[in-house]
Amino acid sequence: MEHLFDREHQIVKLFAPPFDEGERDPGYIRGYLPGVRENGGQYTHAAVWLALALFRLGRGDEGHEVLHALLPAAHAPECYQAEPYVLAADVYANPQHPGRGGWSWYTGAAGWFYRTAVEELLGLRVREGRLYMEPCLPQAWSGYEAEWALTSGRLHLKIERTGTRGLLLDGKPCGDGIPLNQLRGEHQVLFSF
């Protein structure tokens, strides 16, 4: 985080410093200007994986900070110069163009971003037909509410930070995840942690 996350420009660099001088030859990436694409710029796929790792280490504040930095809205439009509604594959760290997005519509990074936000930040995971809640929220979040679509119904989820762990399905204890395939209609889920 100290060396790779440029908080001022909201850029998560693939590595630092970029290759521009010296005898070391990393291959094709040296063909890019320093701070552009893989040569010391942000490679969004890897940046999402940094957020994922932070969440798995229980560092929710930093994981959320990195996820937020990857959004186009974290950059001034006149600098970003890419579509404001899609993730760019790379964001320049080059001092002449800090924060400029490149190679937009990069669905691989978008897919990993979505999965990291849902499974790691919000902690909503399906295993063997059951929904488990294992959030890693920033400390400032007291919880959140969400809806989960079922084949034949809907779950209304309320996740609360209370200091006590518990899971209720329609007001009754449900200790081993929510059995998704058995539910029909509308249901209320309260998870406290």
Automatic annotation (TrEMBL):
<feature type="domain" description="Glycosyl hydrolase 94 catalytic">
    <location>
        <begin position="8"/>
        <end position="123"/>
    </location>
</feature>
<dbReference type="InterPro" id="IPR012341">
    <property type="entry name" value="6hp_glycosidase-like_sf"/>
</dbReference>
<dbReference type="Pfam" id="PF03633">
    <property type="entry name" value="Glyco_hydro_65C"/>
</dbReference>
<dbReference type="InterPro" id="IPR033432">
    <property type="entry name" value="GH94_catalytic"/>
</dbReference>
<keyword id="KW-0328">Glycosyltransferase</keyword>
<feature type="domain" description="Glycoside hydrolase family 65 C-terminal">
    <location>
        <begin position="124"/>
        <end position="173"/>
    </location>
</feature>
<dbReference type="InterPro" id="IPR052047">
    <property type="entry name" value="GH94_Enzymes"/>
</dbReference>
<dbReference type="InterPro" id="IPR008928">
    <property type="entry name" value="6-hairpin_glycosidase_sf"/>
</dbReference>
<dbReference type="GO" id="GO:0005975">
    <property type="term" value="P:carbohydrate metabolic process"/>
</dbReference>
<dbReference type="GO" id="GO:0016757">
    <property type="term" value="F:glycosyltransferase activity"/>
</dbReference>
<dbReference type="Pfam" id="PF17167">
    <property type="entry name" value="Glyco_hydro_94"/>
</dbReference>
<keyword id="KW-0808">Transferase</keyword>
<dbReference type="InterPro" id="IPR005194">
    <property type="entry name" value="Glyco_hydro_65_C"/>
</dbReference>
<protein>
    <submittedName>
        <fullName>Cyclic beta-1,2-glucan synthase</fullName>
    </submittedName>
</protein>
